[in-house]
Design goal:
Layout lengths: L2 H4 L10 H11 L14 H16 L17
Length: 74
């Protein structure tokens, strides 16, 4: 799938399975509602930085881009 053809592109991620498991375990709870400001969590911020670096390296984002948004749905 290409960004120019579809308006989106699916890339293989560079966030490790271990990091994704930590995010799932720490962000979701059946006892509480979801929360905003997920980038305040260090693990989320680290994942966002990793993704930003990957997207900049692949040419999908300019090196100075800061448009990373963290949304989690359960």
């Amino acid at each position: 799938m290409s960004l120019s053809d579809n308006g989106f592109e699916i890339l293989s991620g560079s966030v490790s399975d271990t990091a994704l498991s930590v995010l799932r375990e720490t962000l979701f709870s059946s006892e509480t509602a979801g929360e905003r400001c997920l980038l305040d969590h260090l693990s989320v911020r680290d994942a966002a930085i990793t993704l930003k670096q990957q997207l900049a390296k692949s040419g999908h984002l300019p090196p100075g881009a800061v448009a990373i948004q963290a949304i989690a749905f359960d």
